[in-house]
Amino acid sequence: MRIRIRHETSYAYASPARSALQFLRLMPRSSDGQFVRRWRVEVDVDARLDRSMDAYGNITHLIFIDGPIERLHIVAEGDVHTRDMGGVVSGTLERLPLAFYLRGTALTHASEPIRLFARRHLTAEGGDVLAAMHALNSSLFQDMAFDVSATSASTTASEAFARKEGVCQDFAHILIAAARSIGAPARYVSGYFMRTDRDDQEAGHAWAEVHVDGLGWIGFDPAHGMCITDQHVRVAVGADYCDAAPVRGAQVGGYDEQLGVNIAVTQGQQIVEG
Amino acid sequence: MLSRMADSLYWLSRYVERADNLARILDTAQRMAGLPSNYAGSTNEWESVISTAASTAAFSAQFDEVTRANVLHFIVGSQANPSSILSCIATARNNARSVRTAITSEMWETLNDAWNETRTADVRAMSPSDLSRFLAMVKEMSLRFDGAAYRTMLRTDHFWFQRLGTYIERADNMARLLDVKYHVLLPRQELVGGSLDYFQWASLLRSVNALTSFHWVYRESLQPWLVADFLILRSEQPRSLVSCYKEINEYLDQISDAYGRQGASQRRARATLARLGNANIDRIFQAGLHEFLEEFIADNNELGRNISQQYLS
């Protein structure tokens, strides 16, 4: 499937900022399941834009802007061809050993209820990690309420699990915490999901990848209760949200910041397979 | 467009590119053979020409000994060898004639001139300087042909198939050249990253016109893994495998956009480019450069077959 993505982030300051620094993880890499046909990242002010790569292998852009800045508009846009790989993620750039992804983080620390939840499913599936992950994935989808106002970017997996509500980020954090607690390496993925009901979205999507022996990385999307499909576009991975967040930034001066995000994920030209 | 026409355009470019690569390999071999043996090492340059051209079996069926004269006869002029330089030019010209209306007059004239000038070439009578002149002429033909295509062809499927042929062939030649040279230069596994014969590596780079550009990109002395990195993974280098696959993907995508269909060719080309894009030269050396290149060559051949099945037959 060809997916066209346009991700706009805009900042406006009531009093101009003196300078600003933005760190972007807005550029997808090609792998077996997705091919980035065209992609560009643009900023609408005079700025230095440095492209680099972080420890996970994500493509990063660092933007330095000398102010005064009243407004800033960042656009990441492109076309990606995707293929349904049945959830398997292969052909990716791997820079860290698997053991790294077993380590908990502040956002993905597994509380006792999460550990119990994970172990219960692992026992029910007779110790089969893959089956347990599928079960955990659907169980989160069924039991958790998707509510954009319930949590924030700093909500931990344990808090969200206790409240049984959250957004895709919280769903992913819980699944990651659960997977690591039963010894499966897991990581956070930020990206895009092509919805069939509408084009415009307020936020990108996030899900989890779990490494299963013999199969490699498998993408689980607990917010939709499924494995990743050709509707998912992977952009960045990390131990948790903080390491894979699409945009992070800081500025000197400038208060009353207004942040606007507009994401459009649409299906591109229809192409017959065969 | 008829698949017969696409086929001719595609193979036309493959043969031009093949002739160009053979000329470059011979040029380098001649240069190496002229060096004192303690510079050039004890390897037989002419033998590596035959293995780079992937024609060891065909050669040994015809000749007993690997000598300069035999190799030149086989690689430059042999009618029995369908991939000799003269055969390549003749086949390219034949293909061009059959799709004369699909190519521009500049392209046709370049091929026709080259064919006229070379078909009477007497390989056995060639002195080293005659050979140099002859090889320069072959390389000039491919430059002119490529330039003519780039500057004069309409951007339609004619152009895209013509380009596809060029890059599939270039990727294949590049990978095989690297594979052969790697074995010649580093016959023992433990020597990887060890001592280095400057002239051998320099000649490998020179054969693909990349010696000066290597120093522009790396600003350090020749190291085996840097040479491999340059010729496999660096997109600055226009002949690198990754550059070839960027181009291949570009043209396959143009074709699939225009036809509204995509298939095995697109899938394979995308997967290969994604793999190259996520690769790292240290890891390639750890897993074995030879294995990597072997897999690449097989994959590239498979892509050629995919393209044939999808479009050319």
Describe the 3D structure.
By secondary structure, chain A is α+β, with helices and mostly antiparallel strands. Helix content of chain A is 19%, strand content 46%. In chain A, helix 3 links the parallel strand 6 and strand 7. Chain A starts with a strand and ends with a strand. With 313 residues, chain B is mainly α. In chain B, helix 9 runs antiparallel to helix 12, helix 9 runs antiparallel to helix 13 and helix 9 packs antiparallel against helix 16. The longest helix of chain B has 31 residues. Chains A and B meet through strand 2 and strand 16 of A and helix 13, strand 1 and helix 14 of B. Strand 16 of chain A pairs parallel with strand 1 of chain B.
Short key terms for the protein model shown above:
heterodimer, A: 274 residues, alpha+beta, Immunoglobulin-like, C8orf32 fold, 7-stranded antiparallel β-sheet, 6-stranded antiparallel β-sheet, 19% helix, globular, B: 313 residues, mainly alpha, 2 domains, 16 helices
Topology:
The complex is a heterodimer of chains A (274) and B (313).
Chain A: E1 2-27, E2 34-43, E3 48-53, E4 59-82, E5 88-89, H1 112-124, H2 129-143, E6 145-146, H3 157-163, E7 165-166, H4 168-181, E8 186-193, E9 200-201, E10 205-212, E11 216-221, E12 226-227, E13 232-238, H5 241-244, E14 247-253, E15 257-267, E16 272-273
Parallel strand pairs in A: 6-7
Antiparallel strand pairs in A: 1-4, 1-14, 1-15, 2-4, 3-4, 5-11, 8-10, 8-13, 9-15, 10-11, 11-12
Chain B: H1 3-33, H2 37-40, H3 45-52, H4 56-62, H5 68-77, H6 85-98, H7 105-118, H8 128-152, H9 157-185, H10 198-207, H11 211-218, H12 224-232, H13 241-259, E1 261-262, H14 264-277, H15 281-287, H16 289-312
Helix pairs in contact in B: 1-3, 1-6, 1-8, 1-9, 1-10, 6-7, 7-8, 9-12, 9-13, 9-16, 13-14, 14-16
